[in-house]
Amino acid sequence: MEFLAKLMCTMIDEGVKIPKAQVERYISPILTIFLPELLSKIYTNEYIMIMPKFPIRIGRIKRGSSSNQSKNIDFLLYNKTKNIFTFVELKSDSTSFRKSQLKIYKDLQDICDNTINQKFGMLLQEDLITIHKATRLKSKYQYILDNWEDKYNLIDNMEIIYLVPEKIKNKIEDNFVLSFNDLPKKLNLYNKEWNVIRDYLIKLDKN
Length: 207
Hints:
Layout: H1 2-13, H2 23-43, E1 47-57, H3 58-61, E2 70-79, E3 84-90, H4 103-114, H5 120-134, H6 138-146, E4 158-163, E5 177-178, H7 191-201
Parallel strand pairs: 3-4, 4-5
Antiparallel strand pairs: 1-2, 2-3
Helix pairs in contact: 1-7, 5-6
């Protein structure tokens, strides 16, 4: 645990003090491991991680654009209990937060709500295929496609969950907004390690 504590100290205690350090990128791989169980305990649903940094085609969400470039959402999970997608937005710095940064999620919600002749999941898969054809990073997008399951194509609803510092929790007008202190203290998966990690994550609530 000494190494883990040192690692978390480097990423969070020291990271928040360095101007160009991106703490969100530091902690994202850790949350990728723990997020499904964390959300399952909080919302009493079963969650499965689909992919961190899931690409969304700009031409899908930006009116008048046909761009096959992409923007990434922080985490895409499958809420197995409700059979819906769960998009998770992570913020670690309250001073850099702008409501405009959340627009991509609202745009996705609008598309999901207004999709009539095709399932929302199929739109996401189609966009992955389109990006794959247009990009030079074909192996990376092929990896996402290889991990995309057929059942996801039948999903036609979504939810958005925000994980943010306590200071900006009330600035987000949504039903599902978590601060780091809201994360459960006990987990079944790597609980000893999680106790160390959580102690450092909750420091971000003051950031």
